[in-house]
């Protein structure tokens, strides 16, 4: 059984590491939060004083940090890449732009280590229940080395391609669909409200028709509230659709729907609604079309 | 039990009229097709020689014709509005632009009759199984008069508003969501294919995630075929998103996502793919982004 180093023990990382321990893996973890390290120890893991200490003697180094910049800091500035054993596998599970993953992979490879790109979806609930969707990319033989680790954390483990960055692209495409699906519900509601259609009945009808989407059913009800609970903020989609459009620029792909949707989230953030629930992108449509 | 005249006995209309007969309604029908009239008689209905003859003595005149122009021709040129009894109810079930419905309703009202605007969704299968979704608008008391008729043809009957045209708007909004949902899947596939992600695996992942939509699951698989079966043509969405944008113009609502999606269907039709399956809007993205 491979020895795992785990850096980034936040809301997602801690339950993921706990599931590894539950399945019998040896896990040495590092996080800037002492509370997170205490919790890891309670779950049976070992604490390290730094990322490079955690990576020492490990076969796989899992990075569940916030973004690509943090991953780079851990690997290249914090020294974890050097302490990871020769030919060890860096498992980059944070959500990063595809181009950043490609750049990181190149540096990891030049240092004689390997990288698997493996973003996740399923949220904190999926992390706790070990039901994450894991979208892994990298050479098949490297993927096979860490597959037992993935199977301990998720129940929908996909090998989406041979090149690191392809996993990040699948996650990027996922966010493209999610962001446009939210914005188009707002666009539909704005049009219907122009002629006084009852939006609650409209939502009920659309939820049961070919017009339905996961986002329609989830965000639709909150779109009809003036100050709903924040489950995910407008600024998350400002960032994520930004990553989508960056991926479009890097690959030279025109993405007219994603670009238009991004503008609506951006405007919402610009009006001061960045920390509101992302369903409130509807306020951009209301403002634009002069609907009270 | 109210007496029903039924004009437009096509793929949808005939099974709808048959369901009315099965529930004990008296139905007198008209269609330009002799075969359709024979089939109505076989189902227990009466045939008429014209729309105005069918409407004579009827309490409700159902129009299941192709578009608003045909509805106008039946009512105002064919004379059916005059033969329908005073205060009788015109039930406009064809898919029409909201503004056209409002114009028709005004003329019907001035002639001393009433109008309920009641487009449907659910397709031929729903028409046969009496499981249509019916989106009816008009004064509540008028709606109640014809509700037993609706209940005989559908199982999801909604009163969406007091003003005729609001039903058409709900149907319009439905098509806005459907059209954008198809186009955004094509946009997502185009981006992913730029980096060689396996699109079959991508579709499988997206179908089980928050990125899912009814259209993703239905059109996604056909989008990955080069010449799929045609279940609904590109030109249907050229028309339907055209109705959406007309509704936006009439109500002065900016609809950036619907407008961008319409361009992609329009370009597909312009390249000669109008009669292809609407999933083939992906060819617009492939052409635009130079993807083989």
Describe it for me?
2 copies of one chain form a homodimer. With 292 residues, chain A is of the alpha/beta class. The first copy, chain A, has 2 domains: 3-163, NAD(P)-binding Rossmann-like Domain (Rossmann fold); 169-289, N-(1-d-carboxylethyl)-l-norvaline Dehydrogenase, domain 2, CATH 1.10.1040.10. Chain A contains 14 helices and 9 strands. Chain A has a 6-stranded parallel β-sheet, with helices on both faces. In chain A, strands 7-8-9 form a 3-stranded mixed β-sheet. In chain A, strand 1 (3-7), helix 1 and strand 2 (26-30) form a beta-alpha-beta unit.
Summarize the structure.
Chain A has 292 residues and is α/β, with parallel strands linked by helices.
Would you spell out the secondary-structure blueprint of this structure?
Two copies of one chain form a homodimer.
Chain A lengths: L2 E5 L5 H10 L3 E5 L3 H9 L3 E2 L3 H5 L4 E4 L4 H10 L2 H4 L5 E4 L5 H13 L3 E4 L2 E2 L1 H7 L2 E6 L2 H14 E8 L4 H29 L4 H9 L6 H10 L10 H18 L4 H18 L8 H8 L3
Parallel strand pairs in A: 1-2, 1-4, 2-3, 4-5, 5-6, 8-9
Antiparallel strand pairs in A: 7-8
InterPro entries (chains A, B): 3-OH-isobutyrate_DH-rel_CS, 6-PGluconate_DH-like_C_sf, 6PGD_dom2, 6PGDH_NADP-bd, HIBADH-like_NADP-bd, HIBADH-related, NAD(P)-bd_dom_sf
Family (chains A, B): Belongs to the HIBADH-related family.
Organism (chains A, B): Microvirga tunisiensis
